[in-house]
Design goal:
Blueprint (H helix, E strand, L loop, with lengths): L2 H17 L6 E4 L1 H5 L8 H12 L3 E4 L10 H4 L6 E4 L4 E4 L4 E5 L4 H11 L7 E4 L2 E5 L6 H4 L3 H10 E4 L3 H8 L3 E7 L3 H11 L5 E4 L5 E6 L4 H12 L6 E5 L5 H6 L2 E4 L5 H6 L2 E2 L7 H14 L4
Helix pairs in contact: 1-13, 3-13
């Protein structure tokens, strides 16, 4: 760790002293804008910090808006990483036993309303279903316009399962558990139109992980509820949990965890909600945070 990283770690430790009175035994980390740098990479320093944290007995896990299929296998392969939260907290999976620990999915009647209101707009309409993402083949030709971020577009191209016809037709035929609906809009006015239409639909929570997208989950499905469900499963008190993120779909877990952490690159609203703040995703902020937590826990004999 460099001298500048050492100072950053001491800054986080000072913040922990002001707000935290117990050890931290469970840490949920957002991926995009948090664990990943701007090139969608997990740095070597971050991997080493995760290994150090898990070796000390801390449960560290990804908590992402991505589907299960989109969780980086490099993260899940790190020694000690066992669980993952995906689809914005709609599900938690035990990667050791390959079983679902927690699941909150959109209701059929809610999906029909979403099809009515959003599928006709000038943007993507994707179903996060049973851990994978499905998109209409006929929408692919518009992805360059609707998904302006080149790195995100490349990720979408790698991970989407394309189906013929509309998403409504696909869902009515295939069924399954829909964890999330994701829409992206190249035109901000079209995105605003979608947000206004969503106000008419009960029983949902609407967040964003990127400036151009909208993520729709069942109203009680969020990363915070998922984190608390996993904590109960592991017998860990809420006061000994931590969550770190950068955008609105991280707000629930930052507020509901025992100690909320914001990245240096986080939205200003997220920084206001957090108890502590670390460096940016381009400065290995997650590594700085994890090293600080391990040192913090040492005083409790952990």
């Amino acid at each position: 760790m460099s001298a500048s990283d050492g100072k950053a770690k001491r800054d986080v430790l000072e913040q922990l002293k002001r707000c935290q009175h117990r050890p931290i035994r469970l840490i949920a980390l957002d991926l995009d804008g948090t664990v990943y740098n701007d090139r969608k990479e997990i740095s070597g320093q971050t991997v080493q910090a995760i290994r150090r944290a898990t070796a000390s007995g801390i449960h560290v896990l990804p908590a992402s808006g991505r589907p299960l299929d989109g969780i980086d296998p490099r993260f899940l392969a790190i020694d000690g990483v066992r669980f993952c939260i995906y689809s914005n907290g709609a599900a938690v999976r035990d990667e050791k036993t390959k079983t679902i620990v927690y699941h909150r999915c959109l209701k059929k009647e809610t999906l029909e309303l979403l099809f009515d209101q959003l599928e006709c707009l000038d943007g993507t309409f994707e179903l996060y279903r049973d851990g994978s993402v499905y998109a209409s083949r006929r929408q692919k030709e518009h992805w360059e316009t609707w998904i302006p971020n080149a790195a995100i577009r490349a990720y979408v191209e790698r991970t989407r399962i394309l189906v013929d016809g509309s998403m409504r037709e696909f869902y009515r035929t295939a069924g399954g558990f829909v964890e999330k609906v994701n829409c992206s809009y190249g035109d901000p006015s079209e995105r605003q139109k979608a947000l206004e239409r969503l106000q008419q639909i009960p029983g949902i929570v609407v967040t964003s992980g990127l400036p151009e997208n909208i993520e729709i989950n069942e109203e009680k499905a969020d990363k915070g509820e998922a984190l608390l469900a996993l904590a109960r499963h592991l017998g860990i008190p809420r006061e000994e949990t931590m969550a770190c993120g950068d955008s609105s779909n991280d707000a629930a877990m930052i507020v509901k965890s025992g100690c909320g952490a914001a990245m240096g690159n986080a939205d200003w609203q997220i920084k206001q909600l957090a108890d502590v703040q670390t460096c940016s995703n381009e400065e290995d902020g997650v590594a700085v945070l994890l090293h600080a937590v391990v040192d913090w826990n040492a005083q409790f004999g952990l």
